[in-house]
Amino acid sequence: MPFYRRSGRIRLADTLGFDCLGYAGYLTEGMKGGLLHPDGIYAASGTEGVEEGDIVMLTSDGTVTVLWGANSSQNSLFVTKACNCDCLMCPQPPAIHDPQDLVRAEKVLDCLRSRSVKQICITGGEPTVLGARFLKVLERCSREHPEAAVNVLTNGKLFSDPEFAGKTASASNGKALFCVSLHSDIDTVHDRLVGARGSYAAAQAGIYNLAKLGCAVEIRHVISKGNFNRLKRFSEQMYSYFPFCAHYAFMGMEICGQAFKNFDEINVSPLEYRDCLEEAVMSMYRAGLPVSVYNVPLCLCSEKTRPFARQSISSWKNIFMSQCEECSKKDKCAGFFGTSAFLPGDLVRPFREDACDDSSACWG
Ligand code: SF4
Ligand code: SF4
Asked: How far is the CA of 336 from the centre of ligand 2 (A)?
């Protein structure tokens, strides 16, 4: 790397030498430098996980956090911990907005400026509670990376304001996919699950506003004890009232944060909802709606549901059970959240090439 291009970059090196001069920081497992490297030197550990081109954050205690993986297709811009809901199943409980989250996200965008980026996910918390600051991030993503697929994870409520929805549509320049969570076909059930009255009505209005403005919308439905027995009704509601969406996803739950705290109230076994999920998925499929199942392992889906199950869990938190090593479908399976406090390991049934391919039969 020529000297004049080093100032905004971090050098990863086993030992520090003359070739390390001029960088903004150093990542080394070696000793602190001397006169030539007086500042910004970190006796870091675990640097083997860092790859060329990654965007990392260094803190003075030597902690290295990868903010953007150069070779990952699942990168996110985390803009805030704040949210205008309080979901029973939130994996990361909302908190007061820390301005540093947004600063960090904008710095990542600065570093990405001259790069080719295929995918950007804007997430939180609820990104839209930042108002104009969210719009600025969205506008930068669309303008600076016109080739990228931009996803916004949102509860959709603030798009019920037509003016804000209009500004969002302009900022996205028609390029973003708005992934809106909707957890029931009944307003009171949705509102109870997300811990805020009026959320269903606001999200519904938000979805319509976005659609009227030509924005692509995906509906995301997290399956829980509070809604699984109405999955088919939910799918019928999608067909009747939201048939214009680009995609629909039924999602298994990540058991951490609030979901862990409210475990008894909301957890439901994938085996318990398996038949309801099949009914809902097949109903949408027959209606011609593009539907997927996220975060549910193949052996916990019915045979008919399996073709719709995706490998949806981010690689950095995706794990498999020891039994999975002998499974012939592991390379197509979503596996499990490594972050979940509860994993249904006793339910796992590896597929074998020479055995029955129907887990429903295997389950008796
Ligand atoms: S899961 Fe619910 S509470 Fe958590 S960030 Fe999303 S909308 Fe907010
Ligand atoms: S045994 Fe493991 S890899 Fe195979 S389908 Fe089940 S969870 Fe997936």
From this structure: 9
Residue 291 bridge partners (DSSP)? 248
Ligand nearest to the Cα of 330, by number:
2
Does the Cβ of 23 fall within 6 Å of ligand 2?
A: no
Residue 93 backbone phi and psi in degrees, to 5: -50, 135
pTM for the whole structure: 0.89
DSSP E strands: which ranges in the chain?
A: 10-12, 25-28, 41-43, 55-58, 64-68, 76-80, 119-124, 149-154, 176-181, 216-222, 247-251, 291-294, 309-310, 318-319, 336-337
Q: Is 299 in the pocket of ligand 2 (CB under 6 A)?
A: yes
Q: Any idea which ligand is nearest the CA of 83?
A: 1
pLDDT tens digit string along 124-158? Answer: 999 999 999 999 999 999 999 999 999 999 999 99
Tell me: the pLDDT tens digits for 60-77? 676 778 899 988 888 999
Write down all domains in the chain, each with its CATH number in brackets.
Answer: 3-54 (no CATH), 67-362 (3.20.20.70)
